């Protein structure tokens, strides 16, 4: 049973979501203060955190920053509908996904399943194959990666995205294919989460000797992982 920590000061909403997720088979713990999320990440006591951005005392962005210094536990952000700045900030800091509020319990549950599946926490019989693409080594079973002989510190979402690019290394992979294969859903108009996650992975890979990124983009089409 996966354990979910739900952080939101909206008592009515958290009660509704807790009841629904419990019926879906999750163990759900609710808190109203972001400091509980930091403690849970430090103690590795939960499988995933659902974190509201608009929190008292310490907002969700600050909480996420502190979590990512301690752990790569998956984090799903709850954001105000239409607030792109908060969404992009969260993704840049390592959030795995976001759901705009008000959200339906069914949508939240679906997003949680997708994130946990990508993180390998809910999957059974995971592949143990090793994929090599130039200086990149992908271990699908353990969902870990190495770059130039060093371990890459990736979130679950970043790993899924990089694995898709590695399997098509040297070739253009469309944004639609990335969304379906890495995130398990079709790309929607104006959805920038792929671009934000790509930006984060680029920073972790660094630059080539010619000063260019290892992940090249073709505007409006997709991305290509270079291997030479």
TrEMBL record:
Cited PROSITE patterns: OMPR_PHOB, RESPONSE_REGULATORY
A Gene Ontology term for the protein's cellular component: cytosol
Residue range(s) of DNA binding per entry: 128-227
Domain spans labelled Response regulatory: 3-116
Keywords: Cytoplasm, DNA-binding, Phosphoprotein, Transcription, Transcription regulation, Two-component regulatory system
Residue ranges constituting the OmpR/PhoB-type domain according to the UniProt record: 128-227
Modified residues (4-aspartylphosphate): 52
Record-linked Pfam families: Response_reg (PF00072), Trans_reg_C (PF00486)
CDD domains registered for this protein in UniProt: trans_reg_C (cd00383)
Cell compartment(s), UniProt: Cytoplasm
GO biological process assignments: regulation of DNA-templated transcription
MF terms in GO: phosphorelay response regulator activity; transcription cis-regulatory region binding
Name of the protein: DNA-binding response OmpR family regulator
Origin species: Rhizobium leucaenae
Taxonomic path: Bacteria, Pseudomonadati, Pseudomonadota, Alphaproteobacteria, Hyphomicrobiales
